[in-house]
């Protein structure tokens, strides 16, 4: 929970926005938001790209969390009367820096640690289904709003999130009945309607039959343990997700095959 807002009666799922490299007008940088980040008519901040930096347009009474250490420029109406207009701090519980506005809106230009071609923005207004981001703490560049994240990476609420993928991020839209197979490590995020099933490439995954028969005959009491060890040593990079639509999937293009850690239950399930 970042900024408390009134729950909306009409809920939409989310909006995806991608940005290409380019320039931004000075008038866009100097013009601040007119609303507020608090109260019943809350206004969310806006994330816009400027080559290798991110322009964050914050309304008054708003907080943004993320990797916000490198602020290169700030503009605010509060500069006119000399009053404090922006606070920068560190949230030790989240391990993230935070930027907060007071009575005045402000625009902040922040250097990004990743190319902006790797960034996708989710604008969310959904307290029911939401969006799934399995590695949110590692992949969230910055975020703001009334957002709720559970232990499984299920993100819900009203807010805006900039996700930073490993390499450029691409959106795939699956219709009902459509399915694809993707590398587990390439999956950045997906909506709640998507169904995931671990699968394997049979041609290069299975234990040779002769070894499998010997283990069952001579080491049946430790067969399960040896099977898991075999998968972890030789086959973990052959595990994939079979993804069933309908829904939206975000894939990152630069990843290390076999780098994901699987639970014991997942490895046994995929070996069947």
Automatic annotation (TrEMBL):
Compartments where found? Mitochondrion
Query: What Gene3D superfamilies does the entry give?
Result: Mitochondrial biogenesis AIM24
Q: Which domain of life is it from?
A: Eukaryota
Q: Which GO terms describe its cellular component?
A: mitochondrion
State if Repeat is listed as a keyword: no
Task: List UniProt keywords, sorted A-Z.
Answer: Mitochondrion
Q: So what family is this one in?
A: Belongs to the AIM24 family.
- Output this protein's name: Altered inheritance of mitochondria protein 24, mitochondrial
Which organism does this record belong to?
A: Zygosaccharomyces bailii (strain CLIB 213 / ATCC 58445 / CBS 680 / BCRC 21525 / NBRC 1098 / NCYC 1416 / NRRL Y-2227)
| Lineage summary | Eukaryota, Fungi, Dikarya, Ascomycota, Saccharomycotina
């Amino acid at each position: 929970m970042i900024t408390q807002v009134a729950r909306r009666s009409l809920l939409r799922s989310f909006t995806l926005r991608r940005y290409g490299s380019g320039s931004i007008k000075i008038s866009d940088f100097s013009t601040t938001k007119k609303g507020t980040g608090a109260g019943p008519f809350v206004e969310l901040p806006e994330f816009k790209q400027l080559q290798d930096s991110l322009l964050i347009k914050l309304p008054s009474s708003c907080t943004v969390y993320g990797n916000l250490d490198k602020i290169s420029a700030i503009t605010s109406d509060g500069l006119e009367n000399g009053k404090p207009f922006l606070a920068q701090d560190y949230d030790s519980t989240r391990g993230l820096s935070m930027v907060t506005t007071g009575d005045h809106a402000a625009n902040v230009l922040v250097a990004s640690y990743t190319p902006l071609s790797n960034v996708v923005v989710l604008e969310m207004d959904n307290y029911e289904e939401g969006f799934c981001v399995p590695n949110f703490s590692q992949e969230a560049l910055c975020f703001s709003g009334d957002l709720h994240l559970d232990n499984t990476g299920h993100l819900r609420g009203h807010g805006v999130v900039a996700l930073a993928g490993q390499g450029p991020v691409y959106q795939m839209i699956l219709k009902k009945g459509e399915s694809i197979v993707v590398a587990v490590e390439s999956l950045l995020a997906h909506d709640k309607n998507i169904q995931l099933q671990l699968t394997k490439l049979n041609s290069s995954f299975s234990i040779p039959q002769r070894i499998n028969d010997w283990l069952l005959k001579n080491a049946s009491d430790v067969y399960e343990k040896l099977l898991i060890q075999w998968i972890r040593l030789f086959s973990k990079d052959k595990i994939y997700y079979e993804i069933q639509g309908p829904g939206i999937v975000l894939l990152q293009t630069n990843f290390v095959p076999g780098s994901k850690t699987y639970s014991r239950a997942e490895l046994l399930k995929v070996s069947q």
